[in-house]
Amino acid sequence: MSDTAGLTLLGQSQTQYPQEYTPQLLERFANRFPQHEYLVELDCPEFTCLCPITGQPDFARLTIRYSPREHLVESKSLKLYLYSFRNQGTFGEDVVNSIARDLFALLQPRWLEVRGDFLPRGGIAIKPSVRLTEAPS
C-alpha cells in the first residue's frame, strides 16, 4: 500500500477552493515502484487563468508528464493547486514554468514536462512547454 498518512485534502467532504496562487496545496505520496522508470501523464483540460493585461480569462489544456522517483503527486491537491491560478493575471509561458518549478521541487522526478495548449485569442493559439531534468536555480 502507498503511504497516505500525510495527505490532508483527499477524502475531505467539504472542499475549500483557493482564491490565489497557492503552491503549498501540493501534496505527494510514496511511489511503490521507485525502481521502475515509468511515465505518469496528467491531463488537465479545464485550466483557466487571467490575462495580466486585459483581465480576460485564458483557457487551456495542460498536460503534465513525469518519470517519478520516490514520490507521486496527489491528484486532488494538484486540482486545487491548478485552480489557484484561476484568478491570477499571468501569461501562459509563466504558468507552465511555475507549475514545472513547483512540481519538480515537490517530487524530484527523473524528468518532468508541462505543456500548455492555450485556446486562441486574436487568432493565435499559444502552446508553451517546458522540460526539467534538474531543479531550476
**Derived structural class:** alpha+beta
CATH topology: GTP Cyclohydrolase I, domain 2
Q: Count the E strands.
A: 7
Low-confidence parts lasting 5 or more residues at pLDDT below 50? none
Mean pLDDT: 92
Topology as a string of helices (H) and strands (E): EEEEHHEEE
The CATH top-level class label? Alpha Beta
**Strand residues, percent:** 25-35%
Q: Specify the number of helices.
A: 2
User: Main sheet?
Assistant: 5 strands, antiparallel
Report the helical percentage: 10-25%
| The CATH fourth-level homologous superfamily | GTP cyclohydrolase I, C-terminal domain/NADPH-dependent 7-cyano-7-deazaguanine reductase, N-terminal domain
Task: Outline the structure in words.
With 137 residues, the chain is an alpha+beta fold. It has a single domain, classed as GTP cyclohydrolase I, C-terminal domain/NADPH-dependent 7-cyano-7-deazaguanine reductase, N-terminal domain (GTP Cyclohydrolase I, domain 2, 2-Layer Sandwich), CATH 3.30.1130.10. The protein contains 2 helices and 7 strands. Strand 5 (111-121) and strand 6 (124-126) form a beta hairpin. The chain is globular, with a radius of gyration of 15 Å.
